[in-house]
Amino acid sequence: MKAKSKRERRPPLKALSLFTGAGGLDLGLEKAGFRVSLCIESDPYARASLAANRPRWKLAEPLEIEHLPPSKALKLAGVKRRQLDLLAGGPPCQPFSVAGYWADGDSRRMKDPRAQTLRHFLAYVEHVLPRVVLIENVKGIAFSNKSEAVRLIRRRFNHINRAWDTKYRPQFLVLNAANYGVPQYRERVFVIADRGGRQFQIPLTTHGGPTGDSRDALEPFHTAWDAIGDLDGRKVARHLKTTGKWAKLLPSIPEGQNYLWHTRKRGGLRIFGWRTKYWSFLLKLNKKQPSWTLQAQAGPATGPFHWRNRRLSTRELCRIQTFPDSYRIVGSYRTASQQIGNAVPPLLGELLGVEIRRQFFGHRVRYSGGFVPTKRRKIPPKQRTRAVSDAFRKLVGRHKDHPGNGHGPRASKRANVGRRTKRK
């Protein structure tokens, strides 16, 4: 007869994943010790990526969350109400984009049909009553002048507490992935709520600055070179070559800069007005800094671009998001870029999963750091810029600057249309 182990094995914590996407958050949670019991995701390419990499993760049918009652999801996940340890996910974020507010002014936000995904998520919270809730979204969801989403979340949790005798107190945490070892500046809001009302302590920052901060014993940021330096070949695949009206202007912009280089406040030519384009317009990586935020809906002039004036490959995008090299993103370059750009960096997912286990479940668990990129030395000098071609020199002149947030091109156009209508 075998003797019992001195250390009893605890059953893995169960997580239900909503709006799973390519599985970045869930990879991190898995690394932290959670078992992903069910994934709810409607995008066919994201589902294919999940099936290719984690065939044991159960994918829900039907695909759309609005057609899958929470009661059926619980049954598929093999748990009952109040038995689920973690309900996690990132509802689609387009209605809360700060970039959209910059251009459009008062956008539809909670009136946007795409914002219904947040309401579906909160409906799941009420039916499932999980031990812990984790919601990821863009920083704009908590935009100071546009906090309808924050009010909705708080109102719904208050209702749930009154109806079901729970004590959820949602916290809104703004985390920059670069501060925790991800080679990318990426600010996102994480909403965390514990059923017993305990508050989540924000993990201490571990990385900061190009050389770290000795006063706080911070590690240096992980850089774009750390993430993709070993992939720095001179040959460029055809699908990675830049296209469109502005493609030939990109080589004239230095590493780490964007179109603002060619405005009155920077060192280039006066081709644009100050802040008249999105920040990501003609934006290039700097080898010595973390990558700029990866975009999910990238146009032909939307960066970040490689310092060799090309698009980033799918593998490079994965590296910057801390997906392991063994992880395969299914689909075309465009659909793969969308999946990766929408994902939570697995490294950050693991960190949050470990802290949730420590703080809410009392588990002694170590952060593995398995997704952290390797530090690379001997960073090459910056790529040389090229002269601006005559085609773009014709655009040099005095250009109006952007009038400010909420007064962008589409907002101004709407205002002009409104004034003309009133005259009639």
At the first level of CATH, the class of one domain is Alpha Beta
Regions with little confidence, pLDDT below 50 for 5+ residues: none
The CATH architecture of one domain is 3-Layer(aba) Sandwich
Name given to the CATH homologous superfamily of one domain: Vaccinia Virus protein VP39
| Sheet with the most strands, sense and barrel status | 6 strands, mixed
Number of distinct beta strands: 6
Number of continuous helical runs: 12
What helical percentage do the residues reach? 25-40%
Averaging pLDDT over every residue, what do you get? 89
Task: State the shape.
Answer: globular
Strand order of the largest sheet: 2-1-3-4-6-5
Distance between the termini: 93 Å
Protein architecture, described:
The chain has 424 residues and is an alpha/beta fold. It has a domain at 13-211 and 345-361: Vaccinia Virus protein VP39 (Rossmann fold). 28% of the residues lie in helices and 9% in strands. The chain has twelve helices and six strands. The protein has helices at residues 24-31, 44-53, 70-77, 98-104, 116-128, 148-164, 224-228, 314-320, 333-342, 346-361, 390-393, 409-423, and strands spanning 13-18, 34-40, 86-89, 132-138, 171-176, 187-194. It has a six-stranded mixed β-sheet, sandwiched between helices.
